[in-house]
Structures are given as C-alpha cells and as structure tokens.
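Researcher: Structure prediction, please.
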Amino acid sequence: MIRSLKFCVVIAMLVSACMAQTTINGAGATFPYPMYSKWFSEYHNQHPDIQFNYQSIGSGGGIRQVTAGTVDFGATDGPMSDDQLASAKTKILHVPTACLARLFPLTTCRG
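Model: Predicted structure follows.
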C-alpha cells in the first residue's frame, strides 16, 4: 500500500512538472510594447505553457534590469554601449525588432 502511494506521488509530481508553465520575464522600451504584447499573446495561444511577462518601463530600465540579470530579456530603442555590455552579468545578444511606424510615419494628404 505504501509503495503504491509513493509511486502515485512520484507520478503526480512528474506530471505536474511536465505541465508546469514557463514564464519569460522582460522589461524595457515603451514604444514597441503594443507590438510585443500582440506577439506574446499570439505565441501564448499556440504554446499555452509559455507565458511572457513584459514590463514597459523605458529603455533605460530595460538596460538596467537585463544588465543586473533580473529579467530574461530587455528592450531598448538603441543598442547597448560597449561599457553596458561589459558590465552585464551574462552575455547579451542584440536582436533588432522593426517598428515600421517609427520609420514610416503615416499622414493623410488632402488635395
């Protein structure tokens, strides 16, 4: 009886570990937040076990938090300086994301 109970507990622990949700934490730039929010939502819809937690606190805050290692990723309006990269606790990989609204402002021309 005790052996069966132990086996059930182990199986329950393994199943709950496999079903555990993973949260990826990030912080940084406010401008791309609407785009990131949409991307994260769509990704979560396809992968319910993955959740993103992004705090749009500004580029400087994102740099500080990623440098300190308190988040998994940071977002900034421009690349980090060599000094900022050197002070990071882990290796930083820059991945550019394009926000076309910033490059191509829309306007209506009448006439």
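Model: Confidence is low (pLDDT under 50) at residues 102-108.
Researcher: Thanks, that helps.
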